[in-house]
Amino acid sequence: MSQGDVTTPDDFENENESSYKPPPEKTIEEILQADQDDESLRKYKETLLGQAQTGPIIVEHDNPKKVIVKKLVLVVPDRPEISLDLSGDLSQLKKETFVIKEGVSYRIRIEFIVQREIVHGLKYVQKTNKMGIPVDKMTHMVGSYAPKQEIQSYTTPPEDAPTGLLARGSYTVHSLFTDDDKNEHLKWEWTFEIKKDWKD
């Protein structure tokens, strides 16, 4: 776990404040119609858009969102994956605590659906605190995604859990899935506990 900026745990407002200005949103139809005479660009767009070229991709018809975050998965080498269902009552997540052995390398995988339109510059932001004190902050650039029928995913680079007596204990994590257009796709809170061993 790397040391990050000290901020209030639930203060995500500054995540979208930068000098970078994303390009204006375009629909899939607008993208397909542009530069039709450029063969290489046309082929690139076909590869990028995939299934979405043939018509709107809508996976959950009763959900108007473009990005539907489904699951957070803790990935540790040689251990069974542990997941949190993000499609239900998010207030219940704090009752499910991940246990992580101190010093192990782990990754977090976010599984999500993209439907209706392309999403640009997805970001996963995670702020961690222990006993109300901010101890870590990570911002991962997830990328741009075209709609697909299948679940898509992003896995963070490996992080090492802290070690030692002071590192052990419970941590609260505030997570945000956002994008370049400042859309808040999902914000949730979850917990994990650093222990000396898996069975402590």
Kindly list the characteristics that best describe this protein.
10 strands; elongated; 2 helices; 200 residues; 8% helix; mainly beta; five-stranded antiparallel sheet
Word description of this protein:
By secondary structure, the protein is mainly beta. The chain is built from 2 helices and 10 strands. The strands form 2 sheets. Strands 1, 2, 4, 7 and 8 form a 5-stranded antiparallel beta sheet that branches. A 5-stranded mixed beta sheet has the order 3-10-9-5-6, with no helix packed on it. The longest helix is centred in the first third of the chain and has 11 residues, at 39-49. The chain is elongated and about 65 Å long. The two termini are 21 Å apart. Residues 2-10 have low confidence and may be disordered.
Secondary structure elements and pairings:
Blueprint: H1 28-33, H2 39-49, E1 67-75, E2 82-85, E3 97-101, E4 105-114, E5 119-130, E6 133-145, E7 152-155, E8 159-160, E9 169-178, E10 186-195
